[in-house]
Amino acid sequence: MGKLFLLILFGVAVYLMLKRGQRSTARPPSTPPTAETMIQCAHCRIHVPLSESMTDGNLRYCCEEHRRLGRR
Ligand SMILES: [Zn+2]
Q1: 60 alpha carbon to ligand 1 midpoint, in Å?
Q2: d(CA 49, CA 21)
Q3: What is the pTM of this model?
Q4: Distance 58 CA to ligand 1 centre (A)
Q5: Of the candidates 56, 23, 25, the residue with the CA atom closest to the CA atom of residue 42
Q6: C-alpha of residue 64 to centroid of ligand 1, in Å
Q7: From ligand 1's centre to the CA of 36, what distance in Å?
Q8: Which of 9, 26, 32, 71 falls 20 to 30 Å from 45 in CA-CA distance?
Q9: Tens-place pLDDT, residues 36-59
Q10: Residues 39, 48: contact at Cβ < 8 Å?
């Protein structure tokens, strides 16, 4: 009887451990970093986020100066 009690106790302990382990591994969905479209400057070939780029026709530049200098 004592052995059976220990067995049940062990089973409960394992169950609780597994439950706790599941809880710790179940992380909240991590928000991925906002992946912004990267464009290449037509002048210096550097990659810049689309929102920081300058547009001239169908060409894109990293800054106003490069837009002025134009395509290289
Ligand atoms: Zn540039």
Answers
A1: 9
A2: 40
A3: 0.51
A4: 15
A5: 56
A6: 9
A7: 18
A8: 32
A9: 899 999 999 999 999 999 999 999
A10: yes
How confident is the model at residue 72, as a pLDDT? 77
> CA-CA distance, 30 to 7, in Å (whole number)?
39
Nearest partner of 59 among 70, 48, 51, judged by Cα: 70
How much distance in Å is there from the Cα of 33 to the middle of ligand 1? Answer: 24
Listed in sequence order, the residues at least 6 apart from 69 whose beta carbon sits closer than 8 Å to its beta carbon are 43
Task: Find the 62 Cα to ligand 1 centroid distance in Å.
Answer: 4
List the chain domain ranges. 36-72
Selection from 72, 37, 42 nearest residue 55 by Cα: 42
The region, left, alpha or beta by phi > 0 then psi within -120 to 50, assigned to residue 57 is left
Please, what's the b/e burial string for 42-59 (b: 16 or more CB within 10 A of its CB; e: otherwise)?
bbeeeebeeeebbeeeeb
